[in-house]
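Handout, section 4.2: multi-component inputs.
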Amino acid sequence: MGEAERGESAPRLRISFWCSNGHETQPSFASDAQTPETWDCPRCGFPAGQDRDNPPDPPRTEPYKTHLAYVRERRSDADGEAILAEALAKLRGEI
Ligand SMILES: [Zn+2]
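Output:
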């Protein structure tokens, strides 16, 4: 079938996409196909764009760990201040 052969030999374009981690991926597209603005990076799953210097932002998923670390940091700061205040009070003979 001439039609199928023509489809298989259709020229394909390789388009480079870069994600915010600097990974490059080069999916190929049929020359008459519309190329998407972004492409999912096959290595890290982040969206990748055609502008190497300005890749799309990574998906905004707030990692639970970071939030927990933030809370812990705050708590230890507060504890540290309390301990310091107590130590100062002892030095001054207030306790
Ligand atoms: Zn990536």
